[in-house]
Write a structure and sequence with these properties.
The complex is a heterotrimer of chains A (282), B (332) and C (322). By secondary structure, chain A is mostly helical. Chain A has helices at residues 5-12, 16-34, 70-106, 108-123, 126-137, 141-168, 171-178, 183-219, 231-238, 247-274. Chain A is built from 10 helices and no strands. Chain A is elongated, with a radius of gyration of 22 Å. Chain B has helices at residues 46-53, 79-85, 97-100, 107-118, 123-136, 155-166, 185-202, 213-219, 237-242, 247-255, 298-302, 324-331, and strands at residues 4-15, 18-30, 35-39, 62-69, 72-73, 90-93, 173-177, 205-210, 222-227, 230-236, 308-311, 314-316. The chains are: A mainly alpha (282), B alpha/beta (332), C alpha/beta (322).
Chain lengths: 282, 332, 322
């Protein structure tokens, strides 16, 4: 496959969705990273006298009802989204992929058991179940990470199993078996590298969904807790001022939409770039 | 006038290494009812030639030269005119009947498709025609109802359905691109017999494309040997197969194990052609076969050989064609 | 007589087919039907038959990739399916396989070094990276590739070269048996000849035993010493390659041989019209009954067993063979 990242980029730069989606996603990650070092104003600073200001050179996007700088909150909120989505994906991949690989490698009742359990998880509406989990464990960003992560597990398990099953049918797996390799070693050495591109693509899509889920939970007050700003919470707070300060809702809403769009575009582009069927070389 | 005339056909395809010539300066002609074989290894351009005749080349390819069907050039027609030729005047059978048939459509409906397209028959007449066709290709309706799906048929039966589709509008030319490569020998024999019978009885011209010299020897009257997009030798099958002149043709023949080899006591090695087919973008300037050829001299690397006419029915593109003495030496 | 390297004893293999109804017992397809074969060290054994006759199933069982439903396979006198998994793992170094598809049988994500060195893991002693690389380099040179190609990836090679890589992988543990399942079928004529020659050279050099499975009769005739013809999971004819090809006795073998198109355009084959079956096939009758030109009443009632007919152990399963 691709020997170097540079080669991957070379292919990617011919693909519009990869370029545009990648640029938006990159911007989003840079902003999230930036929040560790610098925000225009500290987000905890409440300054009631300067509340609900229109955008100006002092406050580029204006201020909210506590007089906090909206740009700073957006920057800080990006960091929150990244962390929650990232760790949730980690949980999903960490548990889901081994489950999927095991199901594909062992077949029989183990496969049935894992996949039926998967179906069971799919049967619950994800966001409502996440609300339930945070309701039981109590609100907070850690619990929302767990709640979102749990629902990533069956997604990755299913993708990993499906892709792995098709690789198991290939002749080089027979060759590995006749070299005396067991199912565990084959899964790690042969299956995983061959399904990694599919997993990466799925991860970008789940990342976008994770950001949406985090925003949803925070909107309901079950995710990130004050004083940490988050995009969902900003939307929630903006509701009250909808009529005379709509910009409070527009900015975080636009940030969510743009990021999710960017990530999805990137995922689509990545799929095209990584898919061996679309590649020209043999 | 010849039924089909290909003049100086040149096809370039876009590849990772830029546009590459996959067919260079191919010319041949066919009379009505003639059976022409095209033989060569993978990458020699035999399938591309077939696709060009059907105007089925990929959209980013470029074509120059002429393909004259009864004197009319069909390389620059609009898509509507092409559709009236495709399936109607020229029919095609593909290699893999499983992928060339639509898996979710009943076989009767697939066969009737081109009849609907190209004739003005009504439903009942079409149905009659389909039943007659299926009978012709050896799938009588009593045992193979028209509402079967492709997956309910064996490989050979699927190929018969493909043949029925290809000859549905009694085309003037039938192109068979490796029609039996995916089939067992006994089934291959039946399918080849069927194709020949159909061609003989209806006066259809046949283009048989195969990598298998035996298939070509048994089905074609004239043969074209191709290598890397060039015709290297052309003539009547008997002339070319019995009195081969191009070193590549000769190499192909000595590389196949013949039936009856077990009669000899010693285990002799096959004489193989050294090296491998050069990749598209690495094709040499002169003769493409020069770097694998034992007879090559300096001129072979400089200039592409031009046609040498040995007899009325036998041409070769080589500076150093085999002569009688060489052949005797090789036989020893 | 010497002990055979591989002894296949009365092997049956059943596969479960998908059920038609929910509460049905899964129907069974019998892929192999009592196969008995012996492969001797240093010889080539050909297995011939049409697609679906069970020849690839047999290959997988000999490679211990699949277990037979009944019967056993003795490798050097040891029962492959009756030994601890560890022992089987170590025994695997002695038998390796070369597959049909030169594109599908090499993992596209692995370097040539990783691919070819894989079977070395079955060895008892663990090799260092440098040692592995050295051995892979040697074996690559031996199969006619560049010893320095170890860091390349499969997509950088042509079909014939890939098949050489597959052969190198099969050879690296110095096995005594190589099972070649349609190993040259996907190759072009000129490359096929190169690979066949290579296989014969290697056989002479290392006294290899080949189990050569192919639908291409002329290739089998060329490379093997012994042949078995399989039809619907049963051996119908078996003997030395010379006897079987020069004097085929079973009507199925004769049909197969007649069907191979002759490269001489002057030897036009007379068409043999498909015959209408004379008798109705039942569970008990000869499996070839419905395609046989010589069928008689006896063929309906029973299945013919392999019996000695002709020279040098030429076995035929037909009531009417002459």
């Amino acid at each position: 496959m691709f020997k170097t990242l540079a080669e991957l980029l070379g292919h990617g730069l011919k693909n519009w969705s990869f370029v545009i989606g990648g640029a938006i996603s990159l911007l989003f990650f840079l902003v999230a990273f930036l929040s560790y070092f610098w925000t225009p104003y500290p987000v905890e600073d409440i300054n009631i006298s300067e509340r609900l200001l229109k955008p100006s050179t002092q406050y580029l996007l204006g201020t909210d009802h506590f007089g906090r700088d909206i740009l700073s909150m957006l920057i800080q909120g990006a960091r929150n989204s990244v962390i929650v989505a990232f760790v949730a994906i980690g949980i999903g991949i960490g548990c889901g992929v081994p489950l999927g690989l095991t199901a594909a490698a062992r077949k029989g009742w183990i496969d049935e058991f894992i996949m039926r359990f998967n179906d069971l998880t799919f049967a619950f509406p994800a966001l409502i179940s996440a609300i339930m989990i945070t309701a039981i464990l109590g609100p907070g960003s850690v619990n929302s990470i767990i709640a979102i992560g749990i629902f990533n597990i069956p997604v990755f398990a299913r993708v990993a199993r499906g892709a792995a099953l098709s690789i198991w049918k290939r002749e080089f797996i027979l060759a590995a078996r006749s070299a005396g390799k067991g199912p565990f070693k084959i899964s790690i050495e042969h299956i995983l590298p061959n399904i990694s591109s599919m997993l990466i693509v799925q991860a970008t899509i789940q990342f976008a969904l994770g950001i949406l889920a985090e925003a949803g939970l925070s909107y309901l007050g079950l995710g990130t807790q004050p004083p940490m700003p988050s995009w969902g919470k900003m939307l929630n707070e903006a509701q009250t001022f909808m009529h005379f300060a709509p910009q409070l809702a527009i900015y975080p809403g636009a940030a969510i939409a743009l990021t999710v769009l960017g990530l999805n575009l990137f995922g689509d582009g990545l799929r095209d770039v990584l898919d061996p069927k679309l590649r020209r070389s043999r | 006038m010849a039924l089909l005339q290909v003049q100086d056909l040149l096809i370039t395809l876009k590849t990772a290494h830029g546009p590459q010539e996959v067919i260079s300066h191919v010319s041949f002609s066919m009379d009505a009812g003639e059976k022409l074989g095209i033989v060569g290894e993978s990458g020699c351009g035999k399938s591309i030639t077939a696709l060009a005749l059907m105007s089925l080349l990929p959209p980013d390819s470029r074509i120059s030269g002429k393909i004259l069907l009864e004197g009319r050039n069909i390389t620059n027609l609009n898509s509507r005119e092409i559709c009236s030729i495709r399936g109607n005047r020229i029919g095609m059978i593909f290699q893999e009947p499983m992928t060339a048939l639509n898996p979710v459509k009943q076989i009767g409906a697939q066969v009737s498709e081109s009849i609907y397209l190209h004739t003005k028959l009504n439903r009942k007449q079409t149905l009659e025609q389909v039943i007659e066709l299926m009978d012709k290709v050896g799938l009588p309706m009593e045992r193979f109802p028209l509402n079967l799906y492709p997956h309910q048929l064996s490989g050979g039966q699927r190929q018969r359905v493909m043949i029925a589709m290809a000859i549905a509008c009694s085309p003037d030319i039938l192109i068979a691109d490796e029609p039996t490569t995916a089939l067992d020998v006994t089934v291959q024999e039946q399918i080849l017999d069927l194709i020949q019978d159909l061609a003989d009885s209806s006066g259809m011209a046949l283009v048989m494309i195969s990598h298998d010299l035996g298939v070509i020897a048994q089905t074609a009257e004239n043969v074209m040997v191709m290598y890397t997009g060039n015709v290297v030798e052309m003539g009547s099958t008997i002339d070319v197969f019995q009195n081969m002149l191009h070193p590549y043709t000769h190499g192909l023949f000595s590389a196949i194990p013949h039936v009856g080899s077990s009669a000899k006591q010693s285990k002799k090695r096959l004489s193989s052609i050294p090296g491998q087919v050069p990749e598209l973008h690495l094709r040499p300037n002169g003769c493409n076969f020069a770097n694998r050829c034992q007879r090559a001299s300096s001129i072979c690397n400089e200039k592409e050989p031009s046609e040498t006419r040995i007899s009325e029915h036998h041409q070769v593109w080589c500076y150093h064609p085999l002569n009688r003495q060489d052949k005797r030496k090789i036989k020893k | 007589m010497k002990q055979p390297l591989v002894k296949i004893e009365d092997v049956y293999k059943d596969y479960q087919l998908p059920k038609k109804y929910l509460f049905q017992k899964a129907p069974v397809f019998r892929a192999l039907h009592g196969i008995n074969l012996e492969l001797h060290q240093g010889t080539s054994f050909g297995i011939v038959g049409e697609s679906g006759c069970g020849k690839s199933t047999l290959a997988r069982i000999v490679m211990a990739l699949d277990e037979p439903t009944l019967g056993k396979v003795l490798f050097d006198g040891r029962d492959l399916f009756n030994m601890p998994a560890r022992d089987l793992r170590h025994l695997r170094r002695n038998f390796q396989m070369v597959f049909q598809d030169p594109y599908g049988s090499l993992n596209p994500r692995k370097s040539i070094l990783g691919i070819v060195a894989e079977p070395l893991d079955t060895l008892k002693e663990k090799l260092s990276f440098a040692e592995k690389k050295k051995r892979v380099g040697q074996i690559l040179a031996e199969v006619g590739l560049n010893a320095g190609d170890t860091d390349k990836f499969p997509h950088e090679f042509s079909g014939g070269q890939r098949q050489r890589i597959a052969i190198a992988r099969a050879l690296i543990t110095r096995p005594s048996l190589i099972v070649a399942d349609e190993s040259v079928s996907a190759l072009d004529v000129s490359v096929q000849a190169q690979v066949l020659n290579l296989m014969m050279d290697l056989q002479e050099k290392y006294n290899l035993t080949y189990m050569f499975i192919s639908h291409d009769l002329s290739v089998v005739e060329y490379i093997t010493d012994q042949v078995a013809v399989i039809y619907m999971g049963k051996v119908v004819e078996q003997g030395t390659t010379k006897n079987l090809f020069q004097n085929p006795l079973h009507p199925y073998t004769q049909t197969l041989l007649r069907a191979v198109p002759d490269v001489n355009p002057l030897n036009k084959k007379q068409k043999n019209k498909a015959i209408a079956p004379l008798f109705k096939k039942t569970e008990k009758s000869c499996p070839f009954l419905d395609r046989c030109t010589r069928a008689a009443k006896t063929c309906v009632k029973g299945t013919p067993k392999l019996k000695l007919l002709g020279e040098e152990g030429h076995l035929v399963a037909c009531f009417n063979a002459d």
